[in-house]
Specification:
mainly beta; seven-stranded mixed beta sheet; about 0% helix; about 50% strand
């Protein structure tokens, strides 16, 4: 399985950004795509996850209301959209693949750098 994410983004504070993560290869029948971010000098932060098969989502409480996960089920492409961007949202955003019922990631996207700066 390969996860290919969209390219780097530069946004002003208050704007929004949408990052994609296209899955290809022999994906399982049932898997989640988790979204994780890493700000400069910080550890990994879990944002939530989506089931690309039916669009069912779960959000970290920290991001609820400002983050939306969606998926184009025909192309197995999940998306994360973050609104009302703040400078502290500057980070590398990763998608990660895990099978239902497991808590470890089998595959990772290459990461998408989102920079929020005026």
């Amino acid at each position: 399985v390969q996860l290919v994410q969209s390219g780097p983004e530069l946004r002003n504070p208050g704007a929004s950004v949408k990052v994609s993560c296209k899955a290809s290869g022999d994906t399982a029948r049932s898997y989640y795509i988790d979204w994780v971010r890493q700000a400069p000098g910080q550890g990994l932060e879990w944002m939530g996850r989506i089931d690309p098969g039916d669009g069912e989502t779960k959000y970290s409480q920290k991001f609820q209301g400002r983050v939306t996960f969606s998926a184009d089920t025909s192309t197995k492409t999940p998306y994360v959209e973050l609104i009302s961007l703040r400078r502290e949202d500057t980070a590398v955003y990763y998608c990660a693949y895990r099978i239902f019922g497991t808590n470890y990631y089998l595959y990772w996207g290459q990461g998408t750098l989102v920079t929020v700066s005026s």
